[in-house]
Design brief:
Helix content is 37%, strand content 14%. The protein is of the alpha+beta class. α1 crosses α5, α3 crosses α4 and α3 runs antiparallel to α7.
Length: 210
């Protein structure tokens, strides 16, 4: 129920990027499952849709809004791509890097508040709804000391999406955040379809946000 309310809330405050299409039928004559495909021109749209949705949830709990940060976007993009390479949703890079290492590498000098990750076929709003349902990932999203947000993803050809959301505080020195071991998910294929696959170059993410 909590997840459904969250999805409805963020959905009402966001514009849909899905293009209506005729339902496709499988060999059994029943509607075939559709994969949420993210277009190459959707980077800014999805990032700001997630930002608006996160801030709507934060506002409902009395937390101040966060802003997109190009460095955190780049760190999120790097980790999403790396999780795909490793084929495993977890918080350490293939080179052993931690979330703190990654935000420092992209030049973020503030404190890492938390990182949420997901391996799924769900939309960004469905993923947010799932995150807000779990205590660990909800704590990251609603963190009172968060001021900056990074959000990115990597989509494979089969439609699987590796999502990463990072929260940071630019006014405090870097600290080791609390462990967030439950911030990963694997869920079945669900609805919605857009177009093509997305480019995940971190420099493009930074340029688009500046």
């Amino acid at each position: 129920m909590v997840r459904m309310i969250a999805i409805i809330m963020v959905g009402l405050l966001s514009l849909s990027a899905c293009v209506p299409v005729e339902p496709q039928l499988g060999r059994d004559g029943k509607p075939a499952a559709k994969i949420y495909k993210i277009g190459g021109d959707a980077i800014g749209k999805l990032q700001f849709r997630m930002l608006d949705s996160v801030n709507a949830l934060r506002s409902s709990k009395g937390a101040t809004p966060v802003e997109l940060n190009p460095q955190l976007n780049a760190a999120a993009a790097t980790h999403s791509r790396d999780m795909s390479i490793q084929n495993r949703p977890w918080h350490f890079g293939s080179d052993g890097s931690s979330p703190i290492d990654r935000v420092q590498r992209v030049g973020y000098t503030g404190q890492l508040v938390g990182e949420n990750i997901s391996e799924s076929y769900e939309t960004e709003l469905e993923t947010l709804g799932a995150w807000i349902e779990q205590p660990d990932t909800r704590r990251t999203i609603l963190a009172a000391d968060a001021e900056d947000m990074g959000f990115a993803w990597h989509q494979e050809e089969n439609g699987k999406i590796w999502w990463t959301l990072i929260m940071g505080n630019p006014t405090t020195s870097p600290l080791i955040p609390s462990a967030n071991p439950s911030a990963n998910r694997l869920v079945p294929i669900v609805v919605s379809e857009e177009t093509a696959t997305i480019s995940e170059d971190a420099t493009e993410i930074v340029a688009a946000a500046e």
